[in-house]
Amino acid sequence: MQQNYDAYTSEDQEVWKILSRRQIENLPGKAHPEYMSCLKEMQDVLNERAIPKFEELNEVLLAKHGWSITVVPGLIPVEDFFQLLKDRKFSASTWLRKMSELDYLEEPDMFHDIFGHIPLLMNEAYADFVQKLGALGVKFIDDPKIVKQLQRLYWFTIEFGLIKEQNKSLIYGAGIISSSGETDHVMNDNISIKEYNIYDIIEQDFITSEIQTLYFEINDFEQLFSSIEGLEESLLELKSETA
Fold first, then answer.
1. Cys-Cys crosslink for 38: which of 47, 110, 119, 168, Cβ 3.0 to 4.6 Å?
2. What are the residues whose beta carbons fall under 8 Å from the beta carbon of 15, sequence distance 6 or more?
3. DSSP letter for each residue of 167-207
4. How far apart are CA 28 and CA 51, in angstroms?
5. Residue 217 class from Cβ within 10 Å (0-12 exposed, 13-18 middle, 19+ buried)?
6. Can you tell me whether residue 212 is helix, strand or coil?
7. How far apart are CA 162 and CA 103, in angstroms?
8. What CATH number should be reported for the domain holding residue 14?
9. Cα(182)–Cα(194) distance, rounded to whole angstroms?
């Protein structure tokens, strides 16, 4: 599949402009400076002026840390998703929500996939963490328990992760960054934030249909990669015990 850029309507372009401008104004002081820095680094190919062209995004991503975007029709089987991450390919939809869906969407669209996820792949430690998570998913794809644990890890880091910066909790998870409502919720509502522990996370269930109330907070992006390096040995031990 490929992005058919000529198929985007004037409404699609306007939706992208509204969503991106809203978050570009909303995120400073709430999103971690590294996300804002990565977004700025990509501003020639990822901005509020128009829907981005995937081929231009790929040129930047490949040159930085060897990542690229693979077009998918929507949600894909978990084994395919993990394989793409292992190969440093991030799956993204090309469809965009309608004007009537600006504030709520059941299934992730292109704005979530691109604006939320892509910028931080310019950070080496984060990009390596995402790739390693995919590699573990491929390695343990035949073990439903471990696959579920890795999905929990993805959820509480890549989608809804927080990061500490000068004693303040800031956002790096794409599920928050791509949503003005989630961004304001994290900053203003009563939520529970736990210190990052990869072994606690893989045992923590989540519900996709409800607004988040529990978050895990890392100290820095290097912590993500170092933690997942140690996780592989623990998963191997778990698998041998249950074999």
1. 119
2. 96, 97, 98, 99, 102, 111
3. TEEEE--HHHHT-HHHHHHHHHS--EEEE--HHHHTT----
4. 21
5. middle
6. coil
7. 21
8. 1.10.800.10
9. 18
Q: What is the Rg, in whole angstroms, of the alpha carbon atoms belonging to the chain?
A: 17
Q: What is the pTM of this model?
A: 0.94
* SS3 category, 88: coil
Q: 52, 32 in Cβ contact below 8 A? A: no
The owner of tokens 């995402």 is 130
List the alpha helices (DSSP H) in the chain: 10-26, 33-41, 54-65, 78-86, 110-111, 124-139, 144-154, 174-177, 180-188, 198-201, 221-242
**CA dihedral over 215, 216, 220, 226, signed as positive or negative:** negative
Give me 77's structure tokens. Answer: 């089987």
**Which range marks the domain in which residue 31 is found?**
5-242
Tokens describing residue 26: 């909303």
**Cα–Cα distances in angstroms (integers) from residue 61 to residues 4, 70, 150, in the given order:** 20, 12, 25
Distances (CA, A) of 6 to 52, 64, 80: 12, 28, 28
Convert the pLDDT of each residue in 66-115 to its tens digit. Answer: 999 999 987 899 999 999 999 999 999 999 999 999 988 778 999 999 99
Q: Specify the number of domains making up the chain.
A: 1
